[in-house]
Amino acid sequence: MVSSAFQEMRASYAFVERNIYLVKRYWSWEMVWMTYSITNSLSVSYIGMGMEQVGGEGVDGRFLVLYLVIGTLVWRYLATIFYWITDIIGLERWEGTIEYTLMAPIRRITHMTGQTMFAVVYSFLFTSVILLVTVELFDINLAQANIFGATVVLLSGSLSFIGVGIVGSILPLLFPERGAQMTHVIIATLLLISGVYYPIDVLPDLLQKAAVFSPATYVLQGVRSAMLDGTALGSLWSDIWPALLIGVIAIPMGLQIFRVAERYAKRTGKLSRDG
Questions:
Q1: Of 214, 185, 188, which Cα lies nearest the Cα of 200?
Q2: What digits encode the pLDDT tens for the residues 128-146?
Q3: pTM
Q4: What gap in Å lies between CA 196 and CA 201, rounded to an integer?
């Protein structure tokens, strides 16, 4: 049993290694994407400074900047995980290996484990670079922030976004032409209801009820509480457990749905390399 588990881990790591080589091969795209992400995050963060000028002395621009910076960074981290997992099909099709990978005698959970391990580490490093640039530019003081607690909340939310990403990866599998673009509707809906740039209290009742089912809602609440108020890890549990629960439900459900979609794609010839 130990030998079998070791073999599965080695197989999972093969997909991690493959993604590392893909990043190295498309390094110019990674640089462009990093530049875009930094400028986009800074643009949103400057809204805080702008609101101070527009609203007058009663508006705390520094607080607004930090509020928006946290929302931007948390969202960038979770969205990067989502897109790396949903791109699992698109990359295979782009590389012309989708038939070989999905027909290979390897368990899908082993395949997905390797993909998600890379997605979490990549997203964490990617977001850390944006954080360093933002802190330096806005001279943000994090002395009172509970960075460890915020990291724990962030990682707990990773599980749920892995599950959502697995569900989303079905779209490019079943719709080769526009499936990758169709995944944007999932991330846009979560962006709307999760309170990334505003408290969910400002949303209509219907969207506030929908926010309860978004893992990003709890991650954003927990990270903001840890970073803005320095809340202790124990007090963050009320935000950690819902995110974990959604992940525990979403991952096996996503794998099961993916298996059904995979069988359908094989039966109907949707694994064509050129889509």
A1: 214
A2: 898 888 888 887 777 788 9
A3: 0.83
A4: 12
Residue 196, Cβ density class (10 Å: 0-12 exposed, 13-18 middle, ≥19 buried): buried
Across 71-86, average pLDDT: 86
How far is Cα 181 from Cα 161, in angstroms, rounded to an integer? Answer: 18
**pLDDT tens-place string over residues 43-68:** 888 888 787 778 777 777 778 888 89
Is residue 41 within 8 Å of 80, Cβ to Cβ? no
Report the distance separating Cα 162 and Cα 219, nearest Å: 14
Cβ-based neighbours of 183, under 8 Å, separated by 6 or more: 82, 83, 86, 168, 169, 171, 172
User: CA 93, 97, 101, 102 torsion: positive or negative?
Assistant: positive
Amino acid at 16: V
Q: What is the mean pLDDT of residues 106-128?
A: 86
List Cβ neighbours of 156 (8 Å cut-off, separation of 6 or more): 219, 222, 240, 243, 244, 247
CB neighbour list of residue 240: distance below 8 Å, 6 or more residues apart: 152, 153, 156, 218, 222
The burial class, CB within 10 Å (0-12 / 13-18 / 19+), for 89 is: buried
**Helix/strand/coil percent split, the chain, to 5:** 85, 0, 15
Q: How far apart are CA 111 and CA 43, in angstroms?
A: 37
Q: Are 77 and 150 in contact (CB under 8 A)?
A: no
DSSP 60: -
Q: What is the pLDDT of residue 223?
A: 93
Counting every residue written for the chain, the total comes to 275
